[in-house]
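Chain A, query sequence.
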Amino acid sequence: MQVAYYEDFAEIKKKIWSMLDNAVKDRGSPFRIPVFICGNQNDLDGRIVVLRKSDQSNSLLQYHSDIRSDKIEKLKVNKNAAMLFYDKEEKIQVRLKVECVVNHENEITKESWATT
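Chain A, predicted structure.
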């Protein structure tokens, strides 16, 4: 039997945001550890990150990174990246094109440290 949200874009979007919200709280969620890909056409780099925040109203996803990571330098040159989420049981793959903002020593990082 086909799941209802498979054929309705609004329901698909609702399901995906629900899975993202859940992944922030549930360490066992497959959506908690997406693949993050950044760089440029000559130097793409992918790695696993841990999803730390999901905010549908602002179309925002957040993960934490060490400011010394090489991905930070790559994002300063090219803020465009991609994220890949996959849930085997739900049979859902989500590919996102994202525009990144590096937050460092500002109100967003203070809030993140306070809740980590």
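Residues 4-115 form a domain with the Pnp Oxidase; Chain A fold (CATH 2.30.110.10). The chain is about 30% helix and 30% strand.
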